[in-house]
Write a structure and sequence with these properties.
Strand order of the largest sheet: 1-2-3-4
Largest sheet: 4 strands, mixed
Shape: globular
Structural class: alpha+beta
Strand content: 15-25%
């Protein structure tokens, strides 16, 4: 996926993506480094921690029961990534719980 597409997505973040990025950026989460809207193979990950090969996705209702998302996750996992997903509403209303879930994944990696 092109860097131009990733740059475009960075400028068009959803409110949930903006909120999560503000919580993850500059190593705010236990000094783990994340990148946002970062190309990985044929995909662009919402947020990626390369050190632990963890991808965090912020999903809206269009992702409910998405076959494409399942395929995308399977392909990324074949490449050694672990993908976790959070609904936008969850990020907006329970950001502390989301961060604890991400930390749990990172600490278990």
């Amino acid at each position: 996926m092109s860097n131009a597409n990733a740059r475009k997505l960075r400028k068009q973040q959803t409110p949930a993506e903006q909120k999560l990025w503000n919580l993850l950026r500059n190593k705010k989460l236990a000094k783990y480094k994340f990148r946002r809207q970062f190309p990985i193979g044929n995909y662009i990950a919402d947020f990626a921690c390369f050190q632990h090969r963890l991808i965090v996705e912020a999903d809206g209702s269009q992702h409910a029961e998405s076959i494409l998302d399942k395929k995308r996750t399977a392909e990324l996992e074949k490449q050694g990534w672990h993908v976790i997903r959070f609904w936008n509403d969850e990020i907006m209303q329970n950001s502390e719980g989301v961060l604890l879930s991400i930390l749990s994944e990172l600490d278990g990696a």
